[in-house]
Amino acid sequence: MATAVFVRSYISKLPEGQIFATRELLTFGKRSAVDKVLQTLTLKGAILRLARGIFVRADVGLETPSLEEIVRAKARAFSKLAVSLGCVVAKKFGLKKSTKNMSPKQKVQHKKNEEVNESCAGRYAIVGATTSFETVHGRVLFKAVAPRKHILAQNKVGRILVALWHLGKSSSVEFEALQSMARLKRPEKKLIKKLAAWTPSWLNQYFLNGTLRADICAPADLDFLRRGSSENRKRSKKEDRKYKMTALSTTSKKVRESIAYYKVA
DNA sequence: CTTCTGAGGGTTAGGAGCAG
DNA sequence: CTGCTCCTAACCCTCAGAAG
User: Fold this and answer.
1) A62, A74, A247, A259: which one has the fewest Cβ atoms less than 10 Å from its Cβ?
2) Domain boundary pick from A79, A113, A129
3) A74 with A94, same domain?
4) Residues A151, A28 within the same domain
5) A5 Cβ within 7 A of any nucleic strand B atom
6) Predicted local confidence at residue A21, as pLDDT
């Protein structure tokens, strides 16, 4: 009895459009009891199932949450951070992996990957195991990547390196053109050279052209990537404001405290 | 209406093996 | 040595049915 009351009360106090996960409700009772309450509410149309274990209250005039919001909630439920995949960033810049120097086996694998990518509504990189899940917008792929790539992908400048990394050794990319396409400012151009030290040597080599400088060295810690760039600072302030407004619009203290802040880079 | 049980299918973690 | 794919056991999520 208590489980259903707690769950309904929690959901009713959530701000409009706030996505929640089954996992967040497990403090209110046994898994099975929580599941049944959610199933009943879904059937009644009181809540909307967005993906496995991800719901939103079906308020009047509710706009279906975006794919990014669903991804963020799903990642939050599993304590993960979803960032852009190298292939997605590369595509944004209009770059394509060359199949010229690929072995037949690599070509088959490449084709297979392309097919999987095409069938997905969204593709993100995570640290952990590759997985995928259905959402109301279509299938989303969480692809496991090396921790180095994952950290780099959390930063605007780092994402360019991840894209180049994805293209591979055999690609012939005009780095100057790419830098201007990405609209990198002076400090960012300096940063890309610093971060290149964390990429494979074939990629780092491209950034060793020209005059070498003593003040351009590999960063000692990578934590600044998450807060360092002007883009991240600007977005964080804007998102912080939005988050604060959302959190304050609810009357429940527990709900206010439980709305975790995660972002998709 | 709520809770419990159990089935079925999907997801995750982690190890093995391979390629570069 | 690193990064990636594949495989499998364990775990998770959803749903149906039964009982209180």
Assistant:
1) A62
2) A79
3) no
4) no
5) yes
6) 80
Domain assignment present for A235: no
Same domain, A200 and A88: yes
Q: Name the nt closest to A106 by C-alpha to C1'.
A: B19
pLDDT digits (tens, 9 = 90+) for A16-41: 888 888 777 777 777 777 777 787 78
Name the token pair of A101.
Answer: 């120097």
Asked whether residue A53 falls in the same domain as residue A145, the answer is no
Whether residue A195 is contained in a domain is answered as yes
- pLDDT score at A100: 61
- The SS3 call for residue A92 is helix
Residue A159 in any domain: the answer is: yes
- Does the CB of A144 fall within 7 Å of any strand C atom? yes
Asked if residue A173 and residue A75 are part of one domain, the reply reads: no
Contacts of A50 (CB under 8 A, 6+ apart): A19, A56, A64, A65, A70, A73, A135, A136
- pLDDT of A251-263, one tens digit each? 444 333 333 333 3
DSSP result, A196-265: GGGS-HHHHGGGG-S---TT----S-STHHHH-SHHHHHHHHHHHHHHHHHHHT---HHHHHH-------
Q: Is residue A261 part of a domain?
A: no
Note down the domain range covering A52.
Answer: 2-79
User: How many folded domains does chain A comprise?
Assistant: 2
Q: Is A163 left (phi over 0), alpha (psi -120 to 50) or beta?
A: alpha
**A42 CB closer than 7 A to any strand B atom:** no
Same domain for A113 and A160, yes or no, is yes
Rounded distance in angstroms from the CA atom of residue A237 to the C1' atom of nucleotide C9? 44
List the nucleotides on chain B closer than 7 A to a protein CB.
1-6, 10-14, 19-20
CA A17 → C1' C5, Å? 39
